[in-house]
Design goal:
It is a single chain. The chain has one domain: Rhodopsin 7-helix transmembrane proteins (Rhopdopsin 7-helix transmembrane proteins, Up-down Bundle). 72% of the residues lie in helices and 5% in strands. The protein contains twelve helices and five strands. The strands form two sheets. It has a three-stranded mixed β-sheet with strand order 4-3-5. A hairpin with a 2-residue loop joins strand 1 and strand 2. The radius of gyration is 22 Å and the shape is globular.
Length: 321
């Protein structure tokens, strides 16, 4: 089946499309996973849209910290939407084929949104670092202009650094196999089908992961080490508790995101014995954080909870009672 969709490229053959097979080893019943994945996707869309509407509606939330949260919501929607519609189409309509152009575009978008999420977490860590370690200078350092500049710099960094990923993948020669044992176009999943040498693809993929996500993760945890050191110096237990509570929701999301990144990377080593594990974790890592992030912030941030109540008219109803 891998040679059914080929076009002549000089004296050689070049496949014209890829086939996304879904979850390896469970092709016969993988459609049953579509319901929980669809529910997670709808939850991610609904929760993040609610965050955006609430921040826009409530003037008290027009602050840099919530602007960053709104940008994270946009990135989460983009990440989930990049992969979930195609996965559901595979499960529900058996729409497994994807053109090379669409595949490389999805490859670029997935990497871009994932690195953007990491970059926004770094910006949020810097925000919390300044708020706790330099509270008197916070309003002059972390401004709307600051948010715009760091967001644009992250978009520029990720947009440019990720361009070589699909470009290098497109330069490979796919002469025989076109079946990807995955639900999405992952870099290694696509390039492993190439008939020529993919050393440069693997090297750039590894270098990108270490340079972007690795450096972000290092800076995030360095920020929190400085925050913890500063908090421990506070004499008041109440001040310590308040400082930690402002970071708790952000720290929860950071730990989940980077732990998941590490787990996904490690499980790729066991992918030959249990190929479904890295594939499933890769998909879940693209849809669970977008669904989880708004709920963690909604549960742990009083200002957002009040904003939700006002948005739905609950605050006025409760005050009348």
């Amino acid at each position: 089946r891998g040679t059914n969709h080929c076009i002549t490229n000089g004296s050689r053959f070049q496949v014209s499309e890829f086939v996304l097979m879904g979850f390896p080893g469970i092709h016969s019943w993988q459609h049953w996973l579509s319901l929980p994945l669809a529910l997670l996707y709808l939850l991610a869309l609904g929760a993040n849209l609610l965050i955006l509407i609430t921040i826009h509606h409530e003037s008290t939330l027009h602050q840099p910290m919530y602007y960053l949260l709104g940008i994270l919501a946009v990135v989460d929607i983009g990440l989930a939407t990049t992969i979930m519609p195609k996965i559901l189409a595979i499960f529900w309509f058996n729409a497994k084929t994807i053109s090379l152009t669409e595949c490389f575009a999805q490859l670029y978008a997935i990497n871009c949104f994932m690195c953007m999420e990491s970059g926004i977490f770094l910006c949020m860590a810097v925000d919390r670092y300044v708020a706790i370690c330099y509270p008197l200078q916070y309003s002059s350092i972390v401004t709307e202009t600051f948010v715009i500049k760091v967001t644009l710099s992250m978009m520029l960094r990720n947009g440019l650094l990720i361009i070589p990923v699909p470009v290098l993948a497109a330069q490979r020669h796919y002469c025989s196999r076109n079946e990807i044992d995955h639900c999405l176009c992952s870099n290694l999943g696509v390039t492993s089908l190439a008939c020529d040498d993919i050393t440069i693809n693997r090297f750039y993929h590894l270098a990108l992961a270490w340079f972007v996500v690795g450096s972000d993760m290092g800076l995030v945890f360095a920020s929190y080490m400085l925050i913890i050191r500063s908090v421990l110096r506070l004499n008041s237990a109440e001040a310590t508790s308040k400082a930690l509570s402002t970071c708790s929701s952000h720290l929860t999301l950071i730990l989940f995101f980077y732990t998941a990144v590490i787990v996904v990377s490690v499980t790729h080593l066991a992918g030959r014995q249990f190929p479904i594990i890295p594939v499933l974790l890769n998909v879940l890592h693209s849809v669970i954080p977008p669904a989880l992030n708004p709920m963690v912030y909604a549960l742990r941030t009083q200002e957002l909870r009040v904003g939700f109540q006002r948005l739905f008219g609950l605050g006025e109803h409760m005050s009348r009672k």
